[in-house]
Amino acid sequence: MSNxxxxxxxxxxxxxxxxxxxxxxxxxxxxxxxFIALVVLASFASDRFLTAQNLINIARQVSxxxxxxxxxxLVIITSGIDLxxxxxxxxxxxxxxxxxxxxxxxxxxxAIGVGGTSGLINGLLVAKLKIPPFxxxxxxxxxxxxxAYISSTGIRVVINDQRWWWVGSGQLFGFIPVPVVxxxxxxxxxxxxxxxxxxxxxxxxxxxxxxxxxxxxxKVDRAxxxxxxxxxxxxxxxxxxxxxxxxxxxxxxxxxxxxxxxAAVVMGGxxxxxxxxxxxxxxxxxxxxxxxxxIMNLLNVSAFYQQSVKGLLIITVLALISLRRER
Length: 327
Hints:
There is one protein chain. The protein has helices at 2-45, 52-77, 85-98, 104-127, 133-151, 162-169, 178-196, 198-215, 220-246, 258-267, 279-298, 303-326; strands at 157-158, 171-172, 176-177, 248-249. It is mainly alpha-helical. The relative contact order is 0.18.
């Protein structure tokens, strides 16, 4: 009798532990499980979805937005926002268009430098002048978009140098898209910074409790400025890839890409309030958006409906995250 009484709490405790373990597993891998379910559904919706060529196309398409989203993730984890990501990307694209005949490495460095300087300005406005990130980056997005138009006198610059075509559309070993290589390398680098360095700890700290971080002696303003500068550099690198992909530098695209970038980060479950998030989740979120867009294209869904679906998807994810927090 005593043994039964003793065993009952143990059994109950084991069940509780099992539920908690399952809950923890689902919480950690929720976005990945949702992505796998989406892929399964997409494979049933179209027999063309799982073809090698289509999967390569998805990877190539998401790499540009995905690269920019990596930098935006760092910003959002600090509880900031970067609404200038799209215009900075296009500035990097314009740098390639205007200087395409020069040494490629120097032009890439120039483009990244332009992006870093743009991000630095955003960071100074937020960290030093204490302008709310939404206002600061929204205002500068207009400035950067204007600079993109000014640099080309408002016309598209055709990229005739085929070296740049390889950057945006080339393949390694005959099947690995070059943009995907850039994306993967940048993802590994940013993930390492975020999870393996003291600076990464500061990034999380700025979003979780900036005041406590200041009291611990961290130069928060400097760290925050650096985060925005890094985001600008990454966005400009994506612009270099975009130039090779489109084979032209179009200043009219300056305000097009920001929504997709923020959507990719949000889809990955990174909290807009800051303090949590990861590169891995942003990559999965980006792939999710890519798969959704691809399957709608395969099913010949109108572009107008696609924008609505994308918006509803973002709202749904945010609602689910909010409900999970309340529980």
